[in-house]
Amino acid sequence: ARVEGVIEKRIGRLQEELLEILSVASVEGEDFTAQVVARVQAFRERQLLRALSRELEKRHHLVRERGEVRVNGQSLSQYRFAHVLIQQYVYNALSAGERRLLHGEVAEVLEDLYGDQAEEIAVQLAYHFTQGEVWGKAFRYLVLSGNKARQAHASREAIAFYTQAEEVNQWIKPALDEQQLLPVYEGRGLVWQLLTQYDEAIADFQTMRRLARVAGNRQKEGESLCHLAYTHWLMLSENQMPFVEQYAQEALQLFEQTRDQHILARSLTLLGSVDQARGHLPAADRKLEAALQISRQLGDKDSRVHTLAFLCLQAYLQGKYRPAIEYGQEGVAVAREVRDGFDELRILAFLSQSCWGAGHYAQARSVLQEGMTLARERENSFIAGRLLNTLGWFHNELGDAFHAAEYNNESIELGRASGLSHVEISALVNLCFDYLALGQYDQARSQLAPTLERIRREGFGAHKWRWQAKVLLGLAEHAYATGAYEDALRYVEAGLKEAQVTSSHKYVAKGLALQGKIMAQLGDVEAAGADLQRALAIAERLQSPTLLYPIAYDLGRWYAAAGREQEAAKLYGRANATIEHIASDVEDEALRAVFLQSTLVQTIKERA
User: Fold this and answer.
1) Among 13, 145, 256, 307, which residue carries the largest CB count within 10 Å?
2) pTM summary value
3) β-bridge partners, 63
């Protein structure tokens, strides 16, 4: 109250003309533009600047000059109230009607002054036109503000702008047509998608579809169908696959009527994603490659990002790490160009895994950390959770099962807290292998079977069949470690079958290597050697160092047991050289030390 009293006295000393200047300035905000005040008050610019400088700044100390900016080919003089409380006092002294009228006038002048650059101050204009109840222009700038916030990945702000535009629409007379409303629902739906709030996204895309139909906009109708299909896919549930296929097919039918190649590219990508989810990888490859070719020819970068995300995943799942990296790097670049924050995160996750598979460990960690930071900034719990368990996998592969388990447990908790079963299951799968690496066989066994049941019940798409193969091999590894070789053989055969059907070459190699060791224990030495040789051939083709060196060592042991010391020594040397290559690219000194001190690595070094 004392501060308000001091301000009241200072303001009370002003001449009426100066008070009017401050009143208009207070409506623009704590920061204001001299030329705006001049136009609203119908003052000559020089007269207004003199009043601001000589009277309100130097004599009364109520405002401060902040310099000039060039806008739309002219110089605008910027000022600021000496304290925000002064601005608030002057503003609150205005009646509600005065504020409404002045907000509208300030907005009109700002829009005119900025001209072609008006979109740069869309948020400011949206506020003033809304307060001024100039509903048509308020709607326009609220939508522009929503678009800008979405492209800057300021998701909550974007949602607020789009929702306010939706509310403002009811006051516009004559009413806006359906075509003008489309950007609200498409933009907000895309933001809900980034926030993994898929039910809300689907509701907005359904509204977009209805509006597009009424407006007769076939292109936007096709895009709405593709948005719907993709959102249902992102829900990662077998129950959603019929919707994915239905909407993608409807989009394809729309292409048949319109011959719109953009719709064709998107629908082919989505139908390719259905094939991928069902393990029909050759069919997925054909559709995705066709979609990529079309989107490149059209220069359709939005479609290209979606396609590259699925192609990166597809190549990674098959152990084609170099193509996966190429798709991933292109996808990240294009996603950033079109400001597709969601697919950027997805591709970063696939890219980090692909780099790791190819033996680019420093790059893999760098990409992962970048993805983690962006996922947290954008409030995407799904990608944040998946990257946490990817980090756990990285540590496990380098012999640091203790910290791997910590990361995977953190991912499990995040998945549970966020209601993301896909994140939780992925981390549980990894945790089973952490227990095996730590020699905690009872805990591993207690997790493996229930996790396999959850995968069969809740798993989705490519990850479902990949997880099944991985857990079956985990059960085989547990049985082998505990001497139950017949059980181990049964599990490894089931895991191999799953991996081979879906071209999961990494797990085919792992399965064959484990089967070779099991066969050796069962006394079938010839079959053991054949399996290990096939495993090594696949590992060599994939060029994945962390896959290759243990298999080379196991085959070396087989040769040594057969009395073929020269072949054994060669393989031990190769395993050791691979270890040295891995260590040279691991930048984390503590992790590198753990890796080099791990039991298997030490054993190989002794034999090499």
Assistant:
1) 307
2) 0.88
3) 81
